[in-house]
Design goal:
The protein is mostly beta strands and 298 residues long. Helix content is 4%, strand content 28%. It contains 2 helices and 18 strands. The strands form 6 sheets. A 4-stranded antiparallel sheet has the order 12-13-14-15, with no helix packed on it. Strands 3-4-5 form a 3-stranded antiparallel sheet, with no helix packed on it. The protein has a 3-stranded mixed sheet with strand order 6-7-11, with no helix packed on it.
Length: 298
Amino acid sequence: MAHAPIPEIIDGLPNICGWEEQVAEVTSGKAPVFLNDTNLRLDRINSCFSIALHMQQPLIPVGGNDIRTADLISNLDHMFRNQGTGDNHNATLPQDPQRLGGKVLRIDRDGAAAPGNNVPAGFDARIFTYGHRNVQGIAFRPGTGQPFASEHGPNHSDEVTPLAAGGNAGWDPQNRPGLTCPDNYCGYAGNASTMPMTDTVRFPNALRPSWTNNGVSQGMGPCTFLTGSQWRDWNGRLAVGIMGANRLVILQLDSAGMTTSAVNASIAAARYRSLVQGPDGNLYIATDGGEIWHVVPN
């Protein structure tokens, strides 16, 4: 299908958005919109990365080492197989009962819905919780196994939330009284009162956040629980990376999962991309700078 060329650079910046009509025109036809051939030696590639905007996601071949024919494990698999799903700049997606954006899923090893998800009637059975904006991390509390999610806020209120089967996290960025937004998407409009991260007016039974980063949005990232006597007073506390503020926050939780105190860890500043407690009991941190840190408590 013929279409007008799209400039690669506008005003010195990469042209990465704003061409929805042209994209829709091309993809509405039956002709391929991808290269049919490549000079890459696919038979020599064991793994690779796919890139959607700034999110780098691993592709892991299973059922064979040839990436041309093997099935793939990837966080983007649903996007590949369901190209009509939409993205996170979609006002109706978080509360939509059938589309999987803005959801936490709970599945078995075959990819089917795990028993006990307890979602409302009419929902995709794989959904564990819905009404999320941008979950960046999930960790399970030692002793209870309750999942906690760490999540980007819009222009306010990053959130850590204890999850419960069938729960609604309360994000609904649609037009509302006092806010009328382009494309019906109000995710960056208003404030914590007029466009709340957890809307308890629309959803009185919404999951309550444990911590809101003092009402600000700083790019909340991964989270993990610290366990073991080597962590002393921090044993059982939740570590949360705040990427935009380059800090690591340690949360103390009560029995209900609500935060009772928050302190910053005294370690070097960085964008913490992944937090994992290793078999040695120490904390391993992946940073945006391409480093893996080994953090030993003292």
